[in-house]
Design a protein that fits this description.
By secondary structure, this protein is mainly β. Helices cover 4% and strands 57% of the residues. Pfam families: Toast_rack_N.
């Protein structure tokens, strides 16, 4: 997954200031009101609205494939249709693509990176809460808010670069989330009420990023975290009654656990309540120069 070209970009990003970064050799700036500033001239005009909806009659589950760049994206539930999407943008020539191909919901843009103008590009994506969903999300240079509350999420994969993303689930997921896969570079990702996602396995691959995982007040099953990262900062908040085990702590990494409750046993580090806890979080670490705090 890692490419030399990507690592070169990351080196630039590490030493960048503010919210400026480079993507495909073009400078991009995120702003707080849904706008972005991007390299060379681009035609912008009045804000236009695009929309689409699918009823999904007869489907038992659906795979959601999202590929969007330079946008402000919001995901939430929709109680009427399988999918209902709306895009508001001032970029001339952009043609959002919404397509239902058998059991696949395909959502993507046709926007090429050009321009030094401020663009307005908001995507509001709403999905049915009546059937299991498998998300496959690929996003670059975006600001996101994904509210998965009441959605039936079976699988969730996100590849994010130079983006700011918040994911939350306020109620317990009705499905077991078998796999939560995260690949991120030079960005910020915050997952709130992670315990409510009802997740079994979390795979994380990150470089030069900031990740916050907040399990909230409760977890419903043992959760395994496979973490592979370099030059990264990670904060994990886990309920006090949950046992924790950490394997493969690198000597160059800084790992802190709440109240220093970790004890070495059989080559692993465990909290004192690990064996007696009704649910556990097992963390396997790879990589160097990690700054991880478990609260």
């Amino acid at each position: 997954m890692k490419r030399i070209s990507l690592l070169i970009i990351l080196i630039v990003l590490i030493f960048a200031t503010g919210c400026t970064f480079h993507l495909n050799d073009r400078e991009i700036n995120l702003t707080d009101d849904g706008g972005l500033i991007i390299g060379e001239d681009i035609d912008t005009g009045d804000i236009k609205t695009f929309g689409e909806s699918f009823d999904g009659n007869g489907l038992e589950s659906a795979k959601v494939m999202i590929d969007i760049n330079s946008a402000n994206i919001r995901i939430s539930k929709n109680e009427e249709d399988l999918f209902r999407g709306e895009v508001k943008t001032n970029v001339k020539g952009i043609e959002p693509i919404f397509k239902l191909d058998e059991d696949k919901i395909i959502i993507k843009d046709t926007f090429n990176y050009k321009g030094i103008n401020k663009i307005y590009n908001k995507w509001d994506l709403r999905f049915s809460d009546k059937l299991p969903l498998n998300f496959d999300i690929n996003i670059n240079a975006v600001k996101n808010e994904f509210d998965l509350t009441d959605l039936m999420v079976k699988d969730f994969s996100i590849n994010t670069n130079a983006s700011n993303t918040i994911i939350r689930t306020n109620n317990k997921n009705k499905e077991i989330l078998e796999n939560l896969d995260i690949e991120m570079n030079a960005g910020n990702l915050e997952i709130r009420e992670l315990g409510n996602m009802n997740v079994e396995n979390i795979g994380i691959e990150m470089n030069a990023g900031k990740l916050d995982l907040d399990f909230g007040e409760k977890i419903y099953r043992d959760t395994s975290i496979e973490f592979d990262g370099n030059v990264s900062e990670v904060d994990i908040k886990i309920p006090d009654n949950v046992g924790i085990k950490i394997s493969n702590i690198d000597s160059l990494s800084n790992i802190k656990v709440k109240d220093n409750k970790l004890k070495s046993k059989d080559g692993d580090f465990k909290t004192s309540n690990y064996e007696s806890s009704p649910n556990r979080v097992i963390i396997n670490l790879k990589g160097t120069l990690l700054n991880m705090e478990i609260k």
